[in-house]
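Input.
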Amino acid sequence: MNLSPIQNFKIWGVFLLMVGGVIACKKDDNTDNKPQAIDYGYVIEIQKPQANTVYHWGDTLFLAINFLSETQEYVHNVRVEIQNETNESLYAVQTHVHVPEKYNYADYLWLNDTVKLEEKINWYCKAAVWSHETNAVATIDSLFFQIIP
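Output.
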């Protein structure tokens, strides 16, 4: 069968469009194109207060906590709290810092709230860090110390 050049062109064009359509419609199983979860590698270093230390009413409690990302990601949200064994809070701060790699938190707390301190000797310094993503899992650390009259 002898076809004209235009007919050959049309046949080849239709054939190439069909092949291209099949290739384009094929589901891409390549997981590299899917968004990957970010490993923030969060670590918390509670430097102050020191674990198992005894403080007294009227003392000034120095808080020094480092929030780090070992994977050089941003530190997003941090929380620092001083709680007793019944989860009563003496001090609580939560903030969105959004800084690269490391955030150094520092504050002073004067131990003068005798109503909250009364008969509550055992306390915990709790620190948490988490990302901005929905359902983000927090990295949490805590240490024990005492406050006595």
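The chain has one domain: 42-148.
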